[in-house]
Amino acid sequence: MTKKDLFDGLNYIDDQIIEEAQPTGESAGYSDEIYVKNHETHHGGKEDKSRKKHKKFARAAKALATVAAVLVVAVLGTEVVRLNNRIDELETKTANVISQNNAQNNVYAGIKSGAKLGDYEAASDYGKLYDVVKKAEASIRDTAFGELLESADATGIVSDLSSTNKQESKQESAANTEYSTTNVMTEGVDESDVVKTDGKYIYMVEDGQISITDISKGEPGEETLFRPDFEVPSDTVEELYISDGKMLIISNHAGDKDETICYSYDIADPTKPVLIGKARQDGFYNTSRKIGNTVYVFSDTYIKTSDMKKNVALQEDNLEKWVPQVNGKVISYDCFYIGEDTYSGTVISSFDVDKPDKTIDAKCIMNNSGEVYVSSNAMYLYHSDWSASRELTKISKISFEDGVMKTGETTSVNGYLNDKFAINEQGGYLYVLPTSNTGSQPVNSLHVLDKDMKEVGVINEIARGESIYAARFVGKYVYFITYRQTDPLFVADISDPTSPKLLGELEVSGFSEYLHMWDDTHVLGIGYGDSQQSKIKLTMFDVSNPTKPVEVSQKLIDSSESWSNEFVYNYKAILADPEKNLIGFAANDYYLFSYDSENGFSLLEQQALTYKNTDGYRGIYKDNDFYVAGNGEIKHFKLAE
Questions:
Q1: What are residue 166's phi and psi, to 5 degrees?
Q2: What span, in angstroms and rounded, lies between the C-alpha atoms of 107 and 331?
């Protein structure tokens, strides 16, 4: 046998396998009904043609590799390397054919919304996704951190590593009951939390279940303990939504892989919730938003090929073993946006709370996971990016309407975002306040980006040596706090997006972690009075003259014995309601203040809490009844009328 004979035979087998793998007839254009979870067969129980061809291909490919190896050893000897390269080329070629076949057969209901997300490109097939993940896996295994990740993955830890902004609104029921709602980033965009109320009941996450307490008569009444329809007892309740007679419970499910599961219940009778349905997606829960009846869920996913070879991984029966899924269906290849060599990303899905099992749209951005900011019509995914040997913040914009997501552009700015409120959209522009540590000292900047994520305005060299700790965008102004040894409040005019200007600054002791617009001329700050964080500080700034802000009042609270102060990193733990004149937060005890220009901050109530780790406590009101709820307990008292 000559080399020509062998390669002629190899090419013949090559052509036969490619022909067998090509879709024909029915397999060239399946409808949505052909897909069934767990790949159940259709058409009277008969196995479909495409699957038979894939199996035949797999057998032929395996036989080819075996025959070729024998022939190489017996005849060619010195041609081992060239022939192995040929086999590798053949495997890649045929794997791509399978991937294209799977692409035609894919019936995921996601809506195609563009080939690009800035420099992220939609995958042309599952083979492209596999290549990126495999490259990232190989790269990380070569590091000590890779060994740590492999160890963490075995224990299910990996996933966890990875407009006017009116933060406290109130609602009124048909009976004109006034009650507080969750402190959110964007007005009209609801956020899940561990405690919610509808003005009649308090719903509280409590040790894997929901405590539902009747407050219709003011005093906390009968309590119902409700445990969701978990798939396994170890599932956890993360957060929940309450609105329009529905309760949506968000859970983390740890099984063969991490999943985020959303359970939707009808609570016409809150003591007897009735399951409507559930939505599920791969990945560990990150955050969510709810606009009207539409819910957007973000989870951090970690794709692992389980060392499957490419031609095996791309077979239809194996896709679900490594490709992230939403509601039991693998996400369509063209809904994966790839721009980096990484095996981790953010899964985004949308659904109607009344029809949770009917996915509206889904995407997966291979961005190493990160943070999310959501306006009323767009979501911005951002994360630290070190690809340029310095820290950048990479920001991707996805517009949406009624659950349908439309990809936009991606850009980056120098530095990192140290506060969740340091990014904001209003008037069609995105404003970003990063801090950069690339030089000898930190320095800050303000960037204004248009709808296409192009920079149209910038202020550089803000407060060199300081870092941004808190920010608030309101109308034509942005207020932000930087910190090193003092607490400067800066005011910038952003009324002209193309020419933002610093107007004034004020230096006071301590630093604020949270800012809230109190009225047209005052900004509330909540933070610490000293660098040791032994005293909590309430500050009221007068910004009636933006060029000369003034601290008009302050209040210090001893926090030396506080085990944790959730308000520092979670704005939802803060109650700030100017109309009701209430400022509340937990720090060892629960503190409730009011404010007026003559007396400054006045303590209305100080409630001792059972648990000194104060994470999870929320202050809410209904008319003149006030409740401190969290960790399985509810404190109640009356507000002065």
A1: -95, 100
A2: 9
Distance CA 435, CA 455 (A): 17
Question: pLDDT class for 238, splitting at 50, 70, 90?
Answer: very high
Which of the four pLDDT bands, split at 50, 70 and 90, describes residue 488? confident
Q: Give residue 368's pLDDT band: very low, low, confident or very high (50, 70, 90).
A: confident
CA gap 611, 7 in Å, rounded: 75
In angstroms, the CA 583 to CA 537 distance is 12
Query: Residue 618: which of 307, 191, 91 has the closest Cα?
Result: 191
Question: How many alpha carbons fall within 13 Å on the CB side of residue 336?
Answer: 29
Pairwise CA distance, residues 17 & 228, whole Å: 50
Contact 258, 236 (CB under 8 A): no
3-state class (DSSP) for residue 88: helix
Q: Span 608-637, mean pLDDT?
A: 93
Give Cα 255 to chain centroid, integer Å. 21
Handedness of CA 139, 141, 144, 149 (dihedral sign): positive
DSSP state of 441: S
Q: Which residues contact 485 (CB under 8 A, 6 or more apart)?
A: 531
- Across 152-303, the runs of DSSP E, i.e. the strands, are 170-172, 178-180, 195-197, 201-206, 209-214, 223-226, 236-243, 246-254, 258-266, 274-282, 284-291, 294-302
Give the mean pLDDT of 394-412.
Answer: 95
| pTM reported for the whole predicted model | 0.81
C-beta separation of 516 from 167 below 8 A: yes
Residues 6+ away with beta carbon under 8 Å from 542: 521, 522, 549, 550, 551, 552
